[in-house]
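In keeping with the milestone schedule agreed at the kick-off meeting, the structural modelling team has produced records for the first pair of proteins. Each record is given below as a sequence line and a structure-token line. The laboratory manager (R.T.) confirmed that both were archived under the project's standard naming scheme.
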Amino acid sequence: MSSSSIPNLLSLRGRDGGRGRSRSRGRGRGGHGLGPEAAASRGQAHDLTIQGTDTDAAVSRLSAVDMGYLSDPYARYFVTSLGGPPARRFPIINRGTYTRTTAIDSLVRSFLLGHEGQGESGGAAGVTTKQIVSLGAGTDTRPFRLFGQQGRPHLIYHEIDFSVTSARKLKTVEAAPPLASILTNRSTGEASDWSSQPWNGEYFCHGLDLRQLSPTTAQSLPGLRTDVPTLILSECCLCYLSQEESEGVLGYFSSRIPNVAVIIYEPVHLGDAFSDTMVSNLAARNIHMPSLERRRVDGEQAARLKIIGLETTRYLTIDRIWSKWVGAEEKERVDSLEGLDEVEEWQLLAGHYIVVWSFRGDGFEGWRAIA
């Protein structure tokens, strides 16, 4: 789903003309120290900037597919051809897209398959019901890839994003028969809040500002189950929130769901010259990422998740995932697609992005052996 480029790997170095932008659709705020009207205006502008990066994300995902890094038959439906053929990303961006996507796919697959066959409340006999909630989902294709496969456990899938993004996704689905045939029996409240009943589960698309969610909010999410193992997925989303807002979002789910897990993918600020340049270039694009100011080292992610009650946390930077999780034969295949001359630069760039997975309770047996 969340399958596009590692955010800004090259644009941070000023080498791709701003094409390799983040897929993230976080909910950052701006305007600290401004008057109420100016702060609101600046915050709205920042929201629009973040929403706009979804187009670049879709192009980056399609670039990786077209070059043979990934298999995703649904990627092209989210890229318009009105402006000519989609841009081909640099090899280092394509490799980042591949590594980040396959790593998260692997964690999601382990979550869905682990503990299968024991049965749970609401599932068919011998089938485990599990739930995924994707924050800032945008044009992510993961639900189509999951619901389009046979042999999956009964799956409940939620996507949350701004109303305009959710409404746009509905239009794309309705206009593309291969997408519409997967998310069948669609129903809508408003155009930005819709659902579907694919053959092997349930899908909900919520048009909602994440900042409305906290442990004390009365906000309800239609279709959200609290009695099944649930995975919260944040791919460069929570990093755009203030600390209080991001903890509130995670707390909304962890306070309601006993068996809960989180996957977070985002930049990590290691306090070196490159990360300082990262922050500066993001600011030049009117993008503020509070997480880069707060979490300067890897271990601070575990401390963050412990606050909301998650018991087991593991994490790897993207360069370590490439080294540890991608086998020799697959590395050879990926290397043969384009080649990568600047290995040291890859290690530097990929070392500033991290995948964190954390869980509490039952239903995550497939994760216990992953390191």
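The second protein of the pair:
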Amino acid sequence: MDMDHSSHGSSTESGHSMMSIFFNSMDTPLYSNAWTPTSAGTYAGTCIFLICFAAIFRGLLAAKAIMEQRWLDAEMARRYIVVAGKQSFSERLVHDPEAKDMVLSANGVEENVRVVARSRVGNARPWRFTVDPLRALMDVVIAGVGYLLMLAVMSMNVGYFLSVLGGVFIGSLAVGRYTPSTEH
């Protein structure tokens, strides 16, 4: 039984096979064929680029967290105007069925307080022209950088993979304390 593999047209013969194992090669293209390291120096430069790029990614996540906190602080510091005919916040608290009267004690001093649970319905902040376009732009940049880093890792090159991990480590070491723990 003679099997001629050229008649089957397998994907490995046409050069479009998907690598499923890590490999170590210095001539792995990054993002395009034009960016293919040709020497140990250009490979090292590509790895250094990936380290910096991953650190920048962590910096972008930290910058977004800092900006979100600033935007929230600015929103909480806004002064609100009482409109004629509308109940003020303190008047609404008096009639709120969820509010509970309690006694607060600190250092032997007791004070009567009214505790209100935070409403979970409608706690989205209002859309603001000064905040939301910048937030959306930051999200797009973060997603773009993340996808480019993902493509570098998906090249299955060990050097590229370790460079991205090293950059994430360096970035987290530098600015990780500013990012919320739920970010990846």
